[in-house]
Design goal:
Elements: H1 4-7, H2 15-45, H3 47-58, H4 62-90, H5 92-109, H6 116-130, H7 133-142, H8 147-158, H9 160-178, H10 187-209, H11 222-239, H12 246-250, H13 253-265, H14 267-271, H15 276-282, H16 288-316, H17 320-339, H18 344-365, H19 367-372, H20 375-407, H21 411-431
Helix pairs in contact: 2-5, 2-8, 2-9, 2-10, 2-11, 3-10, 4-5, 4-6, 4-7, 4-20, 5-6, 5-7, 5-10, 7-20, 8-16, 8-18, 9-10, 9-16, 13-20, 13-21, 15-16, 16-18, 17-18, 17-21, 20-21
């Protein structure tokens, strides 16, 4: 059951007007955030398609590829907290612009990779520059929406993850299948160039489109601003006392526990996309365009599931089961990929489950720390939880690649990731209270 004081917020006067204002806000800010993060995921995971030829062209082993794919998350983890603390000082507009422009330039520079060393360096820089984007958006949404609406808003925002594959998969497959040799570049070099340019454009657009808070939104009337600001203030009071200082947040046992849960729960979401094209290729699909189209299918399912789960979680104000059950379902899918490897239809169904379910977890899970923390503690604490969780993205791809070199099977590493998902679910069910945490 949700916290009683939070449920009373649904009875405040003017809720019909508020609903209309929040819908207006969502229409204004969510689409741009979706596009922003969509380009980030496109540049982060187009490596999975580049792998189909890049590994052979450069003479890289699967372990080297996996380590290079995962080292992105080392840079990500090291710079995520400073980036989010900096956002609180300079604002979301400049932060989002800086992040997108720098990662776009770095993604384009991937075309020049010719050794494993440069592969590692550029992937590390890509993660370093992108650091802070996701927790920055989580923090940014707290400026605009009360807790009872954030689950659905974050779920809408996170539809950019499956959308990046739904749109990017076929495009990446087409580039890999048709651009080889043009202008003296290989297909994977064209992939990095053509998919890096949109990030720079979106970053420049952020300087014009991002508004810091409702009070600064010219597209809200004074009455609409008053309604939203009063509602947000009432929501803060209803939530009770929160930790404000970053140092205080780091002393909380719950923050560290949430970081460990995120390490487990995020492991599949940020590991498996690097291997989806290879998994589908292993099912007997040869055409890169077909691989791209099939890669999009699990993410179409994910879009629908994320919105439904986020909406139901907000309606019930229940976060515990809504974040734990997707982890358990994901583990079943990951195991199924290996178990049904000789039955392509069943293996592909398992892949759909393994991809879609953990994306439902993430939007709901991040409502928990934002209910505990405020101010600098929210900026740093959310970033800390996500950055420690992102370290699973450093270890996961490398371990999967190493085990594939060792055993000749991608499924061996996926079983390990399934174990992490089960552990994450167990920690949520064992330690996360049914109501708001004290």
């Amino acid at each position: 059951m949700g916290h009683p004081s939070l449920k009373r917020t649904t009875e405040w006067p003017g809720q019909d007007n508020l609903h209309a204002v929040y819908a207006k806000i969502a229409r204004r800010i969510i689409p741009f955030l979706v596009i922003l993060y969509l380009t980030a995921w496109l540049d982060r995971y187009n490596l999975g398609f580049a792998q189909l030829q890049m590994v052979n062209d450069l003479g890289l082993s699967e372990a080297v590829y996996g380590f290079g794919a995962g080292i992105f998350y080392l840079g990500f983890a090291l710079f995520e907290i400073p980036s989010n603390l900096f956002l609180e000082k300079i604002g979301a507009r400049k932060t989002f612009a800086r992040i997108a422009i720098l990662w776009g330039i770095t993604s384009i520079a991937m075309m020049a990779v010719n050794t494993a060393t440069w592969f590692y360096i550029l992937r590390f820089l890509l993660g370093s520059f992108e650091a802070g984007l996701f927790p920055g958006v989580v923090l940014y949404l707290t400026y605009w929406f009360p807790v009872r609406r954030r689950g659905q808003m974050l779920a809408r925002f996170l539809t950019c993850i499956p959308l990046s594959i739904v749109l990017g998969g076929p495009i990446s497959g087409w580039i890999m299948g048709s651009m080889s040799g043009r202008g003296g570049l290989t297909n994977w070099q064209w992939l990095f160039v053509l998919e890096g340019i949109p990030s720079i454009v979106v970053g420049l657009s952020a300087l014009l489109l991002v508004v810091e808070t409702p009070a600064k939104a010219r597209w809200l009337s004074e009455r609409e601003k008053q309604l939203v600001l009063a509602d947000l203030e009432a929501d803060h009071r209803a939530a009770g006392p929160l930790e404000h200082a970053f140092g205080q947040a780091m002393k909380l046992r719950t923050v560290w526990l949430l970081a460990i849960i995120q390490f487990c729960g995020l492991s599949s979401t940020i590991t498996i996309p690097f291997w989806i094209p290879r998994i589908i290729q292993g099912l007997g699909v040869k055409s890169t365009l077909t691989i791209g189209i099939l890669s999009a299918v699990p993410y179409v399912v994910a879009i629908i599931a994320m919105v439904l789960v986020g909406r139901h979680s907000d309606r019930t104000l229940e976060r515990r089961y809504h974040s734990a059950l997707p982890c358990l379902v994901c583990s079943v899918g990951l195991i199924g990929i290996g178990v049904f490897a000789r039955t392509p239809a069943l293996a592909f169904a398992a892949l759909v489950i393994a991809v879609a379910s953990p994306l439902c977890y993430n939007a709901v899970f991040f409502q928990i720390p934002s209910m505990l923390l405020a101010g600098t503690a929210a900026a740093g604490g959310i970033a800390f939880i996500n950055s420690l969780g992102a370290l699973s993205g450093w270890a996961g791809p490398w371990v999967v690649g190493w085990l594939q070199d060792l055993t000749g099977k991608t499924s061996t590493g996926l079983y390990l990731v399934a174990g992490l998902e089960i552990l994450g679910a167990a920690l949520i069910l064992r330690f996360m209270p049914r109501s708001r945490m004290k």
